[in-house]
Amino acid sequence: MTEVLFYTFAADPLDVARRVAVKAHAQGKRVMIHTPDPATADAIDRLLWTTPALGFVPHCRDTDPLAAETPVLIGTQPDALPRADVMINLDTTAPPAFARFERLVEIIGQDVASRERGRERYRFYQSRGYALTTHDLRQQAG
Questions:
Q1: What is the pTM of this model?
Q2: Whose CA is closest to 74, among 114, 36, 19, 117?
Q3: Does residue 55 surpass a pLDDT of 80?
Q4: CB of 52 within 8 A of CB of 65?
Q5: CB count, 10 Å around CB of 101?
Q6: Smallest Cα–Cα separation from 8: which of 100, 94, 114, 87?
Q7: How does DSSP classify residue 139?
Q8: Per-residue pLDDT band at 48 (split at 50, 70, 90)
């Protein structure tokens, strides 16, 4: 069953997504970054091109012809990955086909609306019996 990880109180959710993707890639995992819209996809794409400064994370859009060979995908088509290791959700709702992934990462911002939508998703996964882990990023900021 999919393990669901919540990273709460993220000052910069896109940067948290980037860091999670970099770490998962370094562990040999295939990653799907689920984005709600083209603007978010563009923003995370830019982050993955520019950071880390001394490294590179091979990535592309899930519609790219090279998607099947690329370890990190950005978009809305989880079936584009041949192996479903990690899904990072940047949308405000539970992503489609998340249950086919070993791990789902939910990143919750600091604003009230983001926290409320995060609570709704938490209750959704909890009511379906998923293993939930929460990491409060405020405790790591100090």
A1: 0.94
A2: 36
A3: no
A4: no
A5: 26
A6: 114
A7: T
A8: very high
CA 79 – CA 136 distance, rounded (Å): 30
Exposed/middle/buried for residue 56 (C-beta within 10 Å: 0-12, 13-18, 19+): exposed
| Token pair recorded at residue 61 | 């859009």
3-state secondary structure of 121: helix
What lies within 8 Å, CB to CB, of 26 at 6+ separation is none
Give the highest mean pLDDT range of 22-26, 77-81, 123-127: 123-127
Topology annotation, domain 3-131: Rossmann fold (3.40.50)
Which secondary-structure segment (H or E) carries 75? Answer: strand 72-75
CB contact at 8 A, 30 and 71: yes
Report the DSSP beta bridge partners of residue 4.
Answer: 104, 132
SS3 state of residue 107: strand
* SS3 label, residue 59: strand
Helix/strand/coil for 38: helix
